[in-house]
Design brief:
Rossmann fold, 8 helices, 6-stranded parallel β-sheet, 6-stranded mixed β-sheet, binds (3R,4S,5R)-3,4,5-trihydroxycyclohex-1-ENE-1-carboxylic acid, alpha/beta, 276 residues
């Protein structure tokens, strides 16, 4: 069976190597290919893949929102987040849209030492773009005690995006940012040397708690960026590769309708240069 990833651009994607490694380990004859799909062709590409008997596809930038309207059914998290990164072509249900970015983030985070999610009380998420919405949703869904500070240049209306979690979201401007938290997640270009002038770089990480973790989903993370600062303070940190790995694992589990063995997860991690 065929699988793939649609994006524009797409040449940089590590998903083909990652999923290919899983199929090899599982002894499956499936194929996973990258496809350059421009926005105007998204619907035709999805219908075409379904007609050709693909099992499913991943969607990456810039297709995750546009795909919502093309899906026949949406999984609850995809509807909440307002974005789809995994399509499953189901003979009865049609095109089913899922979002595995959030659960992928949470699974990656669990690999870093620190308090378990159900004990997490305070987190800061920098940025309000597509990736951050999936992360905010998954964190609030998995960490019932969590109060989350969501930092954006335009914080107005952020909490209302998640009616079921609105009372646990504190929309915050960059100017009012306070970092007394157990988890700092960066989904912006903060830390990149060429970031815009109004981004506060470097951030002052001193206020993070002693058990705090830092995740910078930009990858490869810049040498002088947040992860380097975290490392200098002895705090555990990770870049975006664990999230990439685990969103792929969860997508593949949806397509194959079974849990992946650790050998397959490890092979997928090796294919992108990390430990799974
Ligand atoms: O959500 C993922 C997507 O499933 C695949 C991907 C990639 O291949 O680079 C990146 C993320 O957007």
């Amino acid at each position: 069976q065929a699988f793939g990833v649609f994006g524009d651009p797409i040449a940089h994607s590590r998903s083909p190597a990652m999923h290919g490694a899983a199929f090899a380990t599982l002894g499956l004859p499936h194929r996973y290919l990258p496809f350059h799909v421009v926005p105007g062709q998204l619907e035709a590409a999805i219908r075409g893949a379904a007609a050709l008997g693909f099992g499913g596809v991943n969607l990456t930038v810039p297709h995750k929102r546009a795909a919502l309207a093309i899906c026949d059914q949406l999984a609850p998290e995809a509807a909440r987040v307002g974005a789809v990164n995994t399509l499953r072509f189901d003979p009865e249900l049609g095109v089913v849209g899922h979002n595995t970015d959030g659960v992928g983030f949470v699974a990656g985070l669990a690999q870093l030492p620190g308090p378990p999610l159900d004990q997490l009380r305070r987190a800061v998420v920098l940025g309000s773009g597509g990736a951050s919405r999936a992360i905010v949703d998954a964190l609030l869904a998995h960490a019932p005690q969590l109060e989350l500070r969501w930092v954006s240049r335009r914080p107005e209306g952020l909490a209302e995006r998640f009616p079921s979690f609105a009372d646990r979201i504190q929309p915050t401007s960059w100017a009012a940012l306070e970092l007394d938290a157990q988890l700092l997640v960066n989904t912006t270009i903060v830390g990149l040397a060429e970031g815009p002038a109004d981004f506060p770089v470097p951030l002052e990480l001193d206020a993070l708690t002693a058990d705090a973790r830092v995740v910078d989903i930009v990858y490869p993370a810049p040498e002088h960026g947040l992860l380097a600062q975290a490392r200098a303070r002895g705090l555990p940190g990770q870049d975006g590769l664990p999230m990439l790995l685990w969103q792929g694992v969860r997508a593949l589990e949806l397509w194959l309708q079974r849990e992946l063995p650790t050998t397959a997860v490890a092979a997928m991690g090796r294919a992108i240069g990390i430990q799974g």
